[in-house]
Xanthine dehydrogenase accessory factor
Amino acid sequence: MRDVLGTLEGWWSEGRSAALATVVGTFRSAPRQPGASMLVGPTGEAVGSVSGGCVEGAVYELGSDVLRGEDPTLQRYGVSDDDAFAVGLTCGGILDVFVEQVDRETYPQLGEIAAAVREHRPVATATIVSGPGVGRRLVVWPDRTEGSLGSPRLDDAVRDDTRGLLAAGRTTLVTYGTDGERRGEGLGVFVESFAPPPRLIVFGAIDFAAAVARMGTFLGMRVTVCDARPVFATSSRFPEAHEVIVEWPHRYLAAEAEAGRVDGRTALAVLTHDPKFDVPLLEVALRLPEIGYIGAMGSRRTHHDRLERLREAGVTDAELGRMSSPIGLDLGARTPEETAVSIAAEMIAHQWGGDGTPLSDRQGPIHGDSNVEPGIQASELATGAR
């Protein structure tokens, strides 16, 4: 819903109704991920996309039916057949799409949710999309909830699981028993997490840093540039960064970690390739288990010198193994912009388990986890299986 939230909130605030279609599950090579949304507006407008064009016409019709009074519905769209006009996905994937009406009566919390998203405050929604009580919703903040899925036991189970998914920034379909049994079946609850954007902290106010900051912003990350030298660390040099900090890098990172502002979705790009900055910073970074990606720029000689200095500082080989150095994938990059693409590519591969192999050289599904059934059982969350 994040991609259409501004438009939806506008209609909602005016007291008008819209149909919201949301991808809640995918199989194989589906073109959009859970959470992708499309709107059918109060005067017939179509906003957003659930499949990149394959099934939007059919979803539009469902949305129109819901606006005319039909109940919320879950619809599956699969592989298209030999009929060129069949409703299906030519990519060979399968989408589950949930369509519901949104207005002040059916979704009274929407205004608060939109405000939280704008202010980068975490919030999640848990909506029953299959089984008894389709359309019921629980809105979950870190410290409170609003709404109900039908029973206190179900609310308690979903609340706890949703907070865990929100902390990880995950959006997925979770299966429960009808009264919240974590090993049960019969109830599909779609949890959509609106976690704050992942962070990219760029250390070193050099020309490459400006390109990396632009790339991070393009990817939807909240970008910070940090350097101890005030003459270089200026907002005018990094206009696309969300903030520019003048501080010794290791002190800044330690303070951010202490304040709880780095997590498993945080990426660090260490671009200074100067040991007086790099070594103290990496000594802190490599000992913070919650950081998702740590990359350091430099030549092979710089890399080996850096490793020796870090080992002398007591950093273990296991901790050093968390560092990507020299930073980036081998794209043959030369310019700062090309290097930024190389770094971003490695960050994406690290996040999703890719290996940088050209897709033309691969066999089978494009997406590495595409053979996994969408959604998970609540028991997996409760036992930490995922």
Q: What stands out?
A: The longest strand covers residues 18-27.
